[in-house]
Amino acid sequence: QVHLVESGGELVQAGESLSVSCAASGFTFSRFMLGWFRQAPGKEREFVAAITWNSGKIYYADLVKGRFTISRDNAKGTVLLQMSKLKDEDTGVYYCARAHSYDSPSYYRDSVYDYWGQGTQVTVSS
Fold it and tell me: Secondary structure of 15-82 in the HEC alphabet?
């Protein structure tokens, strides 16, 4: 059974850094693209970042490019999202998701991902 468990979300001040992590189990981790999405209160879930099976391609939403870094450890089955220079608008529940395949040109679409974690709350306060 596929499980994705996020952790690391907390309350931070604007301008600070924070990392959230996702631990995966129940499937061959190294064969799939992994992504991070977020959902702010009253808004739709949006794409944040994705990383292909071997870290050969990494994708970022324009809003986080240059501030966030996604990485993965295939030996440990984990994917990390390092966030810096956090802004109020980065507040939301951050979700880890597993894609259908090792890569996809539609990496930013929810429909590309078939398993989701329960989310971890990140709150940025100014």
Answer: CCCEEEEEEEECCCHHHCCEEEEEECCCCCCEEEEEECCCCCCEEECCCCCCCEEEEEECCCCEEEEE
One pLDDT digit (tens) per residue for the chain, 126 residues: 999 999 999 999 999 999 999 999 999 999 999 999 999 999 999 999 999 999 999 999 999 999 999 999 999 999 999 999 999 999 999 999 999 999 999 999 999 999 999 999 999 998
User: CA-CA distance, 82 to 28, in Å (whole number)?
Assistant: 24
Q: Which residues pair with 76 in a beta bridge?
A: none
CB 18 within 8 A of CB 8: yes
